[in-house]
Amino acid sequence: MPRKRAVTPKLAETAKAPGSPRKKTVAAGPMKTASAPKPRKTATKAKKTEPSELDRLQTLIVTSLDDDKAENVVTLDLAGRAMFCDRMVIASGFADRQISAMAQHLKEKLHEVGIKRVQIEGAGGSDWVLIDAGDIVVHLFKPEARTMYALEKMWGTDLDEAV
Q1: What is the structure's pLDDT at 107?
Q2: Is 108 found in the same domain as 57?
Q3: Confidence of residue 79 (pLDDT cuts 50, 70, 90)
Q4: How far apart are CA 115 and CA 44, in angstroms?
Q5: Is the pLDDT higher at 138 or at 47?
Q6: Is the dihedral of CA 10, 12, 18, 19 positive or negative?
Q7: What is the DSSP string of 34-80?
Q8: 106 and 129, same domain (yes or no)
Q9: d(CA 68, CA 106)
Q10: I need a surface site. Which of 33, 45, 56, 57 has the fewest CB within 10 A?
């Protein structure tokens, strides 16, 4: 069985096209080959955080919240259950000002340990503040909002055991 060769653009047509060699190649179109090119493998996640680092960050977050008098601090391990984070920390505060202060102090402490891209949503005085610290997401609620949204029930292990 004869071996098929790749079809190359005619050099005379390519030489007439204006531009760099790369532009000429693009203008000539895709090359036809005997077999289709294999798709490239793309990395799904550049760097996976080590469990010891996650534990260290979780301890830092819980300590910061305890220092700011957060109530009912709960941590949930979501590894393998959620794509957006590996851990979730949920805590309550009684006033808008307390919740905003907890979020600001937490952001500062995370910056000190090297996490520069900390996203905070709802810190301008709402019932729910979300802090995205990469592999750990922190939810700060007023007690009424925490009861209404019931994230512990949604992501807790009790739900998994019932299924």
Answers
A1: 92
A2: yes
A3: confident
A4: 21
A5: 138
A6: positive
A7: SSPPPPPP--S-S-PPPHHHHHHHHHHHHHHHHHTT-EEEEEEE-TT
A8: yes
A9: 9
A10: 45
Average pLDDT over residues 64-88: 86
- Spatial neighbors of 102 by CB under 8 A, at least 6 apart, are 64, 65, 68, 70, 91, 93, 129, 140
User: Is 96 inside any structural domain?
Assistant: yes
Among 52, 58, 61, which residue's Cα sits nearest to residue 77?
A: 58
Q: Which amino acid is at 104?
A: Q
State residue 46's pLDDT score. Answer: 45
Q: What is the pLDDT of residue 123?
A: 73
Are 113 and 89 found together in one domain? yes
Reply yes or no on whether the pLDDT at 36 is more than 70.
no
Q: Tally the domains of the chain.
A: 2
Element holding 138 (H helix, E strand) = strand 136-141
- Return the DSSP state at 7: B
- Both 59 and 29 in one domain: the answer is no
